[in-house]
Amino acid sequence: MPTLSELLRTFRIRAGLTQAALAEKAGLSEQAISVxxxxxxxxxxxxxxxxxxxxxxxxxxxxxQFLSVARGKGKQSGEPKRPEPASAADGPLVPWQxxxxxxxxxxxxxxxxxxxxxxxxxxxxxPVGLVAVTGxxxxxxxxxxxxxxxxxxxSYPDGHxxxxxxxxxxxxxxxxxxxxxxxxxxxxxDPHRVxxxxxxxxxxxxxxxxxxxxxxxxxxxxxxxxxxxxxxxSSGSSVIITSRGSLTALPGARQIHLDALSESESIELLxxxxxxxxxAAEPTAAKSLASISGRLPLAVRLIGGRLTARPNWPxxxxxxxxxxxxxxxDSFGSDETGVRASIASSVEFLEHSERPLDREAARAVPLLxxxxxxxxxxxxxxxxxELPAHRTGAILDRLVDLNLMEAVAPERYRFHDLIRxxxxxxxxxxxxxxxxxxxxxxxxxxxTEFGWAVQSxxxxxxxxxxxxxxxxxxxxxxxxxxxxxxxxxxxxxNLMDRFHQAIASGLATAPIIPDLALALFGYHEYRSRxxxxxxxxxxxxxxxxxxxxxxxxAWLVHDSAIPEVESGSLEVAADRLLHALELFRAIPxxxxxxxxxxxxxxxxxxxxxxxxxIELGTEGLEISRQLGDTTVEGVSYLALGGLYxxxxxxxxxxxxxxxxxxxxxxxxxLRSVAxxxxxxxxxxxxxxRTDDALEPILRGLEAARRGKNKELQxxxxxxxxxxxxxxxxxRKAQETVEEAIELIRPLGNRLRLGYFTLELGKIGVAAxxxxxxxxxxxxxxxxxxxxxxxxxxxxxxxLDLARREQAQPYIYKQPQGT
Length: 818
Description:
about 800 residues, three-stranded antiparallel β-sheet, about 65% helix, elongated, TPR repeat, TPR-like_helical_dom_sf, Cro/C1-type_HTH, NB-ARC
C-alpha cells in the first residue's frame, strides 16, 4: 500500500493545490502539510485527517483508504506499530483532556510565543520540554496554558493530559500518589495495578509515556515537589505547569511569569465579554473599570459578566459602585470562583502550612495592607510588623513566592490592588480601629525618626532639632545627605499618602503629626519641596497648638510661610512670618526670633516695605550675633544686602553680601556657599543690576556642581537664564532653562518644573516665538494646577498674550521665584 505521504501528495496534486493552498483550505498550518508529505510524521490526529479529507474532496473509498493508512493499518507486518488509540472498539481512546480554549483570549503574545518556542516539536525527537507559568490567582495562568496547548496539537498527536492538582484550594491539594493514579488511568493502566510507592509509580508513568508524543498540562501545582514525580523521562512528551507559587526549583523549566494586563488589553477583554459597541459608547468608564479591576483577567471577566446580565446598566454605574473599596470584592464574585476566594485560598495555604515563616506571612497580610501608598519598603514593613529587617524581608519574599506581593525593586514590594483590598477586609475583621491606627502611627514614627536623622546631617545647627519629641539616631558616617535624600525621594509619594491617611484617621490630633512635619523640614528645604512642606505645615500647626506645643506651633507657622514665598504669594507669607515672630517673642525663644526676623525682612523687602524690613533684618542680625548662631547671622546679612540693594545703597549691599558669603565659606558647607552666592545674584537681578548678577550666579553654580546638588544647579541655571533674557540673549536663555529642566525633572518637584516651564514661555513670548511659547505656557498651567495658583494665573495671562501675538513687544520681566 502507498504511504501516507504518497497518498497526500497524489490527492493534493490531483486537486491542483499547493501546500499553502491546501493548508488554508483545511484550516491547518503549511508546516503541518509539509511534515506529512515528507513522511516526518505518519500518524496525524483524526481531526487533521478529517479536515484533509474534506479539503481534498475525497470519495468515500478514498477517504477510507486515507484514514486506514493514517491509522497505520496499511503497514508491512515487519514494521513496528505504535498503539492504536483511535476508537473504543480498537483500543483506548487517545487522551484529549484539555479544557476548551477561551474564545476571548486577549494579549499575552510575548508569553505565548515563549511557550510555543519551547514546546513546538514537530519531529518528536527533542528533549522533554518544561514550561512553568506562574502568577497570582486570577491572573490568567490556566487560560494562557490551555490556549498554548491547543496551538501545539500538531506536535503531540498522541494526546493531551490535563490535571488540576488543586495546589491552592478550594480543598486540600491533590496528593502526588492520587495524581499519578489519575494520569496512569488516562494512559490505559489498570488502576488496581498502580504501585503505592510514589517512586515506583513515577517509573511506571515514565514507561507509559515513553515513545509517545503527549502534552501534559499540570494545573495549579503547589510547588516543584508537587510535580517532579509526574514528569516524563524521555523525548517526545512535554509538560506545562501552572502555579501561584514559585517554580524556580524545577530543573530545566522555562519560567513564564504573568503580570496584570495592560489597560488596552483589559479594555479589549472587556469588549469581548460585553460587546465592542457598549465599551465604545463609554470609553472613559471602561478605562476606570479596567483600573478598578486591577487589570486582573478574572476580575475583568467577572465584572463583564455582571454587565452582560444587566444590559440596561451604564458602565459608569458599575464604576460608581466599585469605587467603594469596602464593597469592591463583592462585585468580583462571591463563590469559590470569585476573586476573594482565589486570594483567600493562597493566604489559607500559608495559614495551614507547617512552616513558621508561612504562618507569619499569612498574619502579615492584613497588617501590611493598612497603610496607603503604592509600595512597601522593607524598613517600613519592619516597623509595621515590629520585627527585625532580615525577618521582615524573608516574610515579604515568601509572599512574593506565592504571588501575593510583587518585588518591584530591591527592598521594595507592592500589593496588587485587589489583594490589598482583601488584606484590608481581613484587618477590619481582626483588628479594632485603635490597633489599625497603631500600625499607621508606627509607619509615621519611622519616617519621623529618619527625617530628624537626615536633618541632623543636612542642617546640623538647626534649632528645630532641639524640639524633636521622637528619639532618633544620627545617620551613619558613611551615609551622605544626598543618598539619604535620594531614599526619601523614592519614598516620598508613599510618605505623603500615609500622612494624609493619618490626618483623616484617629491620628489626626496625635503629636506625631507636627513632629513629622518638622522632622522633614531639612529634607523639604534641601530638595526645595515647597508644596509638600506647605501641606504638612498647614495640617500640623493646628494639632501642635491644640496640644500646647507652643514652640512647635511657632516653627510650623514660620515654615508654612516658606512655600508661599516660593509660589509668589508674598502677602500671605509676610502675615505668617509676623505672626510666627509674635509667637516666638511670647514664649520667648530667641533662636526662633532671629530666624523670623531675617525671613520677614526678606519678604517685606520684596513687598517694598523696606524701612520695616531693615529694622527686622537688623534685629535678626543682632540676636544671631548674641547667640553665636553664624548660620542665621549669614542669612541676616543676605536679607540686609537685598534691602540695601533696593535702596540703591550698593556699597552697603555688597559689603553685607560678602559678609554672609564669608561665613558660609568658613563653615566649609558647599550648599550654604552656593545658596548665598545665588541669593546675592538673584537680589541683583530683582533690582536691575543684571551685569553685577552674573559673577555670583556663576560662582553659585560652580559650588553647586562641586557639591553635586542638582536642585541648586537647576536654580543657578534658572537665574543665569534670567540674566540672558534680560540682556535680550533669548536663545542662550532658552537653552539654559532647558538644561535646568533636565536636572529638575527626575527629582519630581512639580513646583520647580512648572515654574521653569513658565520661564520658557516668558522667554518665548519676549522673543516673539508665540507658537512655541504657547505650548510651554499650556504645559506650565497643567503642571502648576493645584500647586501654585499665583504662577498658574500668571501663565494663563501670558498664554492669552501669546495667542493674540500682539504687535507691541513683550518685555521679559524679572523672575518672581527664588
